[in-house]
From TrEMBL:
Keywords: DNA recombination. InterPro entries: Integrase_cat-core, IS30-like_HTH, RNaseH-like_sf, RNaseH_sf, Transposase-Integrase, Transposase_IS30-like. Coiled coil: none annotated. Gene3D superfamilies: Ribonuclease H-like superfamily/Ribonuclease H. PROSITE patterns: INTEGRASE. This is IS30 family transposase. It comes from Enterococcus lemanii. Residues 184-349 form the Integrase catalytic domain. Residues 163-185 are annotated as: Disordered. NCBIfam families: transpos_IS30.
Amino acid sequence: MTKDNFTTKKREYKHLSDVQRGKLEEMARLGTYTQKEMGLRLGVNQSTISRELRRGRTRQMDYKHQYYDCYIGDSGARVYKENRLHSKSKGIEKYSARFFDELVAALKVKKIKRIFSVDTFVHFYKKNHPAERVPCTRTVYKIIDSGDLPLRNIDLPMKTRMRPRKLTPSKPKGKNTKNLGRSIEQRPEEVLTRESFGHWELDLVIRKKTKGEPVIITMVERKTRMLLTKKVWSKSAEAIQKHVLQMIQKQGTSQFESITTDNGPEFSSLSLLESTLEAIQIFFAHAYASWEKGSNERHNRILREFLPKGQSFRNLTYNQLSKITNAINLRPRKILNYDSPTEALSKEFNRIKVA
């Protein structure tokens, strides 16, 4: 038997009963109690007393035919019931129940089968169920935090790892002193704007820094965010060059115009690909400037959801890595107008055919 571990408690609200209204009427008639004392005697907040006194305020006439205002419990109860009849449901009740059922089902699945985040599921559901009332992304997060759903922050891995975003971009701290090839400063402007297809970012994912430990080559296309991966057993410069060439040829050389990577020694031979594939240019980012290939860094972080740090890649099969890569490429992305990288790549191919 499993048990949800969480500390968030669901709020419980209690309305005044007829007995409490009768006691409140008596205390209000005596006129010797403050609103705070009334609240303490009835076990409710002072604000509740204040609202109830306004709700049940009734104008009466005394024996001298002079008007005066007083609180009457029956009047407060009548106004309360009328307000309830005209009130609309608030919170989770005013939204589609089916939406929340499918949201929970979409997020509480095995990592390799989960393709939605909260935001992408909200937009996916709205698109397919336009007649239903669906909350916005921010409201869904508030409902999760309130404890009204069987979802917790631990079910949202990216939320528990989010850091405050920098207000101003950092500047590169180092220079390309190794001179492994073309500097990123020579890269065409169209690569930065992501307006053209075929510009990729390259990196390695290392799980354990142990000699002979396998690594994963990751490549991300900047416009469509398509991810390619390959498990290799050596991170020597010659091996990386060989396997990157194989990845390019398998995907199709026509889909590659440039590759941007960092100055690591494992990429020192990468420029030699230009002699084999004349249409491809290799660029190297500044030292200590990982954000210059931010798309790849972002996808490496997504990959860490499935393959956390500290464990060996030795038992990771090629089939498992392929399934993980497909799961990532099937995730809808806000940056792609909620298309997945697979869909974005397909649209790009269709656009190229038409052109």
